[in-house]
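TASK: fixed-backbone design
INPUT:
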């Protein structure tokens, strides 16, 4: 077993769009697993657009990261050394591991053993930090608890090809909704239409008038807007919201790189009164006690092929900063993960 480990840390606070130079790779000693702790080797690590809000030195819904602090993220890992009674060598876990080769943990925080039964049924390990992790849970509870989605509603999903948007749209289809997605690029739009089963998909990169395109795709208006983009997107759709419409504020990928004073505001707010529209955000860990039930249903749909997922992998620890920066250039297709080691045999 190696006696050193590497991780990416924040080298400087990020201004505007992130670049790889904002991060620094550090090597440190890898401790042995003392009593009450375990060590796990990272298999897959995630890059998450929501992390951007913590990198500029100001607090958001989570605290700002300090210079020299390890970059957060989610990971699939296998326990290699353990002094913890609840984690044995060989256990495969999903955890908040970050951009690092090894996780050293006392078992507290977000850690879940990955059930072997789902792996045997063909559910990929990467799904546990994608559709079965925070992105999928955001879609599930955003649709069920916040949107209170129901049969016959029209659902509009922005950034629809990402793991949150694609899952939210497919949940909507299973609930009997009319689902319209907005995504960027022909490949993403074709996947949403042909694989994920969206009723209509709008390519914002090729539309001269995005507002008109959305209105044409939603001729009766929008009952639920599941927004992953930000204020400009919400303000565009507000005049199209139907009576008692619901807006789920899931993410703000277009606003993360802007200073607060530079972010667009909302102008069409009269709709909140005239149409009794409700807008609500969510932090998915509010629903953590209900994760197992949601995961079991989503895993069953993945296993039977009725829920489509897209996972792309970059190669190695060194790929993580560029993989993260590429999120904000729209380069990713589905859930973007870095593979640090092979799946367990």
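OUTPUT:
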């Amino acid at each position: 077993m190696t006696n050193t480990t590497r991780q990416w840390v924040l080298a400087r606070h990020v201004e505007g769009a992130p670049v790889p130079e904002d991060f620094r790779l550090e090597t440190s000693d890898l401790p042995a697993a003392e009593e009450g702790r375990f060590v796990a080797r990272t298999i897959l690590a995630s890059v998450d657009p929501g992390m951007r809000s913590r990198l500029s030195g100001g607090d958001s819904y989570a605290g700002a990261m300090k210079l020299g602090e390890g970059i957060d993220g989610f990971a699939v890992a296998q326990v290699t050394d353990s002094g913890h009674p609840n984690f044995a060598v060989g256990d495969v876990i999903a955890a908040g591991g970050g951009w690092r080769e090894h996780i050293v943990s006392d078992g507290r925080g977000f850690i879940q053993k990955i059930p072997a039964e789902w792996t045997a049924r063909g559910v990929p390990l990467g799904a546990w930090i994608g559709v079965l992790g925070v992105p999928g849970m955001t879609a599930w509870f955003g649709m069920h608890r916040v949107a209170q989605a129901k049969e016959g509603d029209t659902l509009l999903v922005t950034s629809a090809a990402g793991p949150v948007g694609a899952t939210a749209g497919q949940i909507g289809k299973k609930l009997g909704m009319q689902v319209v997605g907005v995504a960027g690029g022909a490949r993403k739009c074709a996947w949403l239409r042909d694989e994920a089963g969206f009723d209509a998909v709008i390519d914002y990169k090729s539309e001269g008038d995005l507002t008109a395109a959305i209105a044409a795709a939603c001729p009766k208006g929008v009952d639920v807007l599941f927004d992953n983009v930000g204020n400009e997107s919400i303000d565009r759709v507000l005049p199209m919201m139907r009576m008692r419409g619901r807006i789920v504020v899931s993410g703000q990928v277009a606003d993360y790189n802007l200073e607060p004073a530079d972010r667009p505001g909302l102008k069409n707010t009269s709709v909140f009164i005239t149409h009794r529209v409700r807008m609500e955000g969510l932090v998915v860990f509010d629903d953590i006690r209900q994760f197992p039930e949601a995961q079991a249903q989503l895993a069953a749909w993945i296993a039977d092929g009725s829920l489509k997922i897209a996972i792309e992998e970059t190669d190695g620890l060194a790929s993580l900063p560029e993989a993260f920066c590429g999120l904000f250039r729209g380069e990713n297709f589905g859930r973007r993960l870095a593979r640090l080691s092979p799946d367990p045999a």
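COMMENT: The CA atoms of residues 156 and 308 lie 18 Å apart.
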